[in-house]
Amino acid sequence: MKPIRIALTKGRLENKTVELLERLGYDCTNARKKGRKLIMPIGNGEIEVVLAKAADVVTYVESGVCDMGVVGKDTIMEKGGTFYEVADLGFGKCRFAVATLKEKDLYEGYRTLTIASKYVNVAKNYFEQKNMDVDVVKIEGSVELAPVLGLADAIVDIVETGTTLKENGLVVKEEVCPVSARLIVNIASMKLRKKEIEELIDKIEKDIKKRAKEA
Ligand code: PRP
């Protein structure tokens, strides 16, 4: 039987996803001792794990080279795509927010604001909903630098603990929306491997419920 191939987001979500798979009873020794390997079987080989960057998880699942994926809602909101989003996994919790220098009043005067973000679509959509015309500048990382250096009036970014903002003299001015890890499924896989995939989703949903009760 061909394994179900699951793309996992490397980094912050990786460990939590491996923990989830372990709670479901899959032996994840290969994922724990992976070295620089990017594809590995887990359990008794019924699942194959692929480690990828967040945006690429979406690409691999959308194209069908991976059946399922675990990726943040932030990436889904930014990149979009055609796939099923079947579960909120309840970890990787953070939020999108508008932040800038503590003393700055974003709405004084009638200027067009410049917003820096790694998530240009999320930033554009947010201000569009407020009927505000803004210039969005794409920054690849450490976006907190932009208002500090005077490149932008504010940022739209992920806030988890708030430490990065605080240590750089920035504060949240507006909440955009909550973010967490999501389970996504390729549309064709959902039809062709319905039984196996639904069984796995079912196990995951039971685990989510169990953890929610314990919390
Ligand atoms: C994210 C985000 C913030 C930071 C927020 O960056 O862009 O910089 O985490 O976390 P905190 O609220 O717990 O401080 P990440 O570490 O993913 O790296 P990046 O800046 O390269 O995107």
UniProtKB/TrEMBL annotation:
Keyword annotations: Amino-acid biosynthesis, ATP-binding, Coiled coil, Cytoplasm, Glycosyltransferase, Histidine biosynthesis, Nucleotide-binding, Transferase
One of the record's GO molecular function terms: ATP phosphoribosyltransferase activity
One Pfam family cited in the UniProt record for this chain: HisG
InterPro entries, per database record: ATP_PRibTrfase_cat (IPR013820), ATP_PRibTrfase_CS (IPR018198), ATP_PRibTrfase_HisG (IPR001348), ATP_PRibTrfase_HisG_short (IPR024893)
Residue ranges constituting the ATP phosphoribosyltransferase catalytic domain according to the UniProt record: 53-205
Gene3D superfamilies, A to Z: Periplasmic binding protein-like II
Documented EC number(s): 2.4.2.17
Keyword set includes Amino-acid biosynthesis: yes
Pathway(s) annotated for this protein in UniProt: Amino-acid biosynthesis; L-histidine biosynthesis; L-histidine from 5-phospho-alpha-D-ribose 1-diphosphate: step 1/9
Catalyzed reactions per annotation: 1-(5-phospho-beta-D-ribosyl)-ATP + diphosphate = 5-phospho-alpha-D-ribose 1-diphosphate + ATP
Enzyme class: transferase
NCBIfam families in UniProt: hisG
Domain text: Lacks the C-terminal regulatory region which is replaced by HisZ.
Similarity comment text for this entry: Belongs to the ATP phosphoribosyltransferase family. Short subfamily.
Task of the protein: Catalyzes the condensation of ATP and 5-phosphoribose 1-diphosphate to form N'-(5'-phosphoribosyl)-ATP (PR-ATP). Has a crucial role in the pathway because the rate of histidine biosynthesis seems to be controlled primarily by regulation of HisG enzymatic activity.
Name listed for the protein in its UniProt record: ATP phosphoribosyltransferase
Species of the source: Blautia stercoris
Gene: hisG
